[in-house]
Amino acid sequence: MVLVSEGHPSLRAVPDHPGIDLVAAEEATRNLLAALGYDTSEEVLKQTPRRVAAAYAQMLTPVEFELTTFPNEGYDEMIVARSIQFHSLCMHHMLPFVGVAHVGYLPESRIVGLSKLARVVEHYARDLQVQERLTAQVAGCLQDHLSPKGVGVVLEAEHMCMSLRGVQKPGTKTVTSSLHGAMRDDARTRQEFLTLVQETR
User: Fold this and answer.
1) Alpha-carbon 171 to chain mean position
2) In what order do the strands lie in the sheet with 11-12?
3) How far apart are CA 153 and CA 177, in angstroms?
4) How many CA atoms lie within 13 A of 125 on its CB side?
5) Residues 33, 49 contacting (CB under 8 angstroms)
6) What pLDDT, in 10s, does the model give residues 150-194?
């Protein structure tokens, strides 16, 4: 991700991420399928290792973008982007979890382009994740680079590792939140944010 403030130098903020070796990933997928009893020489499975390696590489590669900020011209109310769809991969089972993010902040001297709130969510979702860390990363990024009066992030997601295996309870949603500044410390501000978020449920 490239962070840009109007009139300020660019700041680069790309999370640590090992290089992806597609050849090795393809071979590992072929070995996994063989270990599970599948013959990858069969016509219908010949390209599966390549496709799986490419799919995981795409899902685990953050996309760089410009987190453009602008001077705040006196706006002092909450800004909230609701129901941002996202998907990520559970680091415990490498199965997807899918849901929506609600992201809000109370601006100080700078505001951010609205679409960039969704870009921040997508950026951190492209990793092996746990929902708690993803929630905190999105909130922390906005707190660090906007220095707002407050930040609030709520994620709601269904985890395939819970829906398809183990307890097998499809439709169960996990909700996590991360609050900073006035969103955490001021009861009325916190309630306003949570009320706006709950209206989408």
Assistant:
1) 20
2) 11-12, 2-5, 66-71, 110-112
3) 6
4) 19
5) yes
6) 999 999 999 999 999 999 999 999 999 999 999 999 999 999 999
Contact between 192 and 152 (Cβ < 8 Å): no
- Report d(CA 110, CA 194) in Å as an integer: 23
pLDDT on residue 11: 33
Q: What pTM does this model have?
A: 0.89
Q: Which CATH class is domain 69-198?
A: alpha beta
Instruction: Identify the CA nearest to 191 among candidates 155, 142, 152, 157.
Output: 152
Q: Any idea what the Cα angle at residue 150 is, between residues 149 and 153, rounded to 5°?
A: 160
Domain boundaries, the chain: 22-59, 69-198
